[in-house]
From TrEMBL:
Catalytic activity: a ribonucleoside 5'-diphosphate + ATP = a ribonucleoside 5'-triphosphate + ADP; a 2'-deoxyribonucleoside 5'-diphosphate + ATP = a 2'-deoxyribonucleoside 5'-triphosphate + ADP
Highest taxon listed in the record's lineage: Bacteria
Residues forming the catalytic site: H117 (pros-phosphohistidine intermediate)
Species, as recorded: Chelatococcus caeni
Protein name: Nucleoside diphosphate kinase
Compartments reported by the entry: Cytoplasm
Amino acid sequence: MALERTFSIIKPDATERNLTGAINAVIEKAGLRIVAQKRIRMTREQAETFYAVHKERPFFGELVDFMVSGPVVVQVLEGEGAIAKYREVMGATNPANAAEGTIRKLFAKSVGENSVHGSDAPETAAVEIAQFFAGNEIVG
Ligand code: RTP
Ligand code: MG
């Protein structure tokens, strides 16, 4: 399996509860390396662009409001099969369906306030990383 990079967000419900370190510990224990990281306040425009794929969905407005409601930590994670591996480590979108030991099972509050984002494919990972990081901010 190839060395891959994926894009991660620690969402406002998690930063609000001071869970950045606890989530990073789960990420690192799973063998993923945090090769870029910064804490930002997302603008509404950034959040709308980031989740544009969901713009026709009924929860879109609520999702954008949530993503700009507090600080987030954006990250690039690197590892063997990092994209699929991080989706596994995150757990199901709805924490009620998430497996034991996953980030969402451990920390998520609800299907909306679910603590983390992770890219779902190589194409989206590349686009998402480029939205938030310059090449020289990623140190593998
Ligand atoms: P993400 O994109 O954030 O990594 O999450 P995901 O792939 O597991 O889920 P996705 O279907 O892409 O949904 C994106 C985010 O929208 C919010 N959501 N709310 N209220 C709802 O029914 C609902 N459904 C989705 C969640 O924050 C989800 O992570
Ligand atoms: Mg998604």
